[in-house]
Amino acid sequence: MFRLLLEPDGAPGTVELDDPVGTRVGDPVREDGAAVDPVEPAQLRAQARAVEDVVAQDERDGLVPDEVRAEHERLREAVGLVLHDVLQAEPELGPVAQQAAELIDVRRGGDDQDLADAREHQRGQRVVDHRLVVDREELLTDADGDRVQPAPGAPGQDDPSHRHTITSHPGGYGMHMHIVVTGGAGFIGANFVRRTVATRPDVRITVVDALTYAANESSLDGVGVEFVKGSITDPAVVDELVAPADAVVNFAADTHNDNSLTDPWPFLDTNIRGTAVLLDAVRRHEKRLHHISTDEVFGDLPLGTPERFTEETPYRPSSPYSASKASSDHLVRAWVRSFGVQATISNCSNNYGPYQHVEKFIPRQITNILSGERPKLYGAGANVRDWIHVDDHNDAVWAILERGTIGETYLIGADGERSNREVLALILEATGRAPDDFDTVPDRAGHDLRYAIDSSKLRRELGWAPARADFAAGLRDTVDWYRENRAWWEPGKAGTEAAYARRETPR
Ligand code: NAD
Ligand code: TDX
User: Fold this and answer.
1) Residues with a known catalytic role
2) Which fold has domain 176-503?
3) 297 partner at 20 to 30 Å CA-CA among 69, 166, 355, 387?
4) 237-258 in b/e burial notation, b at 16+ Cβ within 10 A?
């Protein structure tokens, strides 16, 4: 058991420890190693409150969960600074504060009035959606029966040497790592959250998502994570979320090339300014950032050559979308070099899998067929994309988070080059349609010809390899998922197709 002695402004004070832990600790020292004035602990002791008292007070005050967690973080930092190697004290602190947070979650229930109350309490317009803060056990019985088993020997599990290490250095996380996932209600982000929750029970996740048209809150149904509706362009929201976290994984972006040709401005705002706001926060709070980017920053490659993108390929983006993603990558590198921000970048090829918006190529064609419409191929369908299953992408993100070198970029790809015509042929086959049962529509302006990723650095240095490299099998699973989850995609389908019809109907 220990007792925290805090200075009134929340600065690290000191700690009293009972034996036997106490005998392992020398005199209290400050963060810089200097001895604490012996008079100070006595003064601090006079003002001190026990941890239980602090938590009980929080409960009485009805603090919203993030405020409790901020307090928890403050207490934890106070302990961590003084006692770098006796963090076994932390598990006692964690559950106490966590239980208080959960209690308050439960007490607040989930009706609209509670949400309105929560809004009043939130600084910076934060909205905590308590409907998503549910028992973590639920996630292990995935609604689809598609339970993902913990990977054997996954870092941070059953590894006593990591159990109590709390640090913002890669490879050193372990129990209680707390990550902020931006864009977690979108396609890749939601898959990342679901997979992380299912395979890494000791990682705590806070999702922040602006819930643009591209988001689908129901992608996180049954997943026990804190959900915050907010924009990465809002410094107050971002600052408050980053402060208590260990790391940020930035999936949030405006992502559809076709939309960026119609209206580029939201792309510049979220993808560029939003990334800058995140960088500013992780710099201030000295937190780890992993920035998710795309292979489209490299422009395109000629058809029919063996050439592939590498980490050294110069940037040559074609569309407003890819130019905004390229800008965001440059900002990350600048913050790493100029300010020592602890960041990594990954550039991935085209993802496919469940929970992808029906505006994107593969889900659009599948859901057209499932709605009795014909698939729509741009131009002659000769353009080549390098497909990767979303789970393989997200496993690579974890490899980089845990083992990546700060300041480095990693390309993620699964050697999945296929022309759009070839992909459509597989979809038609999987749905029992004739090979010619599709329409061709006017081509995309500035349409990139071919993307191809050389991911050998990631494989060599971090030991990652795609587990779902059989594209045809992954595509069949994806067709099945859309077939079985009509309620997920049907509400947005007609609106998406109406917008496409305006663009694709020759005038
Ligand atoms: P998506 O469009 O499905 O999801 C993006 C999410 O970000 C949405 O939930 C949206 O509401 C949210 N968002 C948008 N603006 C926001 C803001 N200002 N603040 C907070 N949240 C905001 O996109 P996706 O396909 O899941 O892509 C995720 C990331 O991966 C993006 O950065 C994208 O550039 C990158 N990427 C995607 C692919 C792909 O094939 N889909 C490939 C490589 C890289
Ligand atoms: O109806 C269609 N018909 C068609 O032929 C659509 C929607 C697309 N296409 C073609 C255009 C592309 O060559 O299919 C290919 C894939 O198109 P999208 O799904 O729009 O993806 P793409 O433009 O390649 O970009 C995707 O991969 C990289 C993501 O949307 C980006 O966010 C990611 O960065």
Assistant:
1) 295-296, 321
2) Rossmann fold (3.40.50)
3) 355
4) bbbbbbbbbbbbbbbbbbbbbb
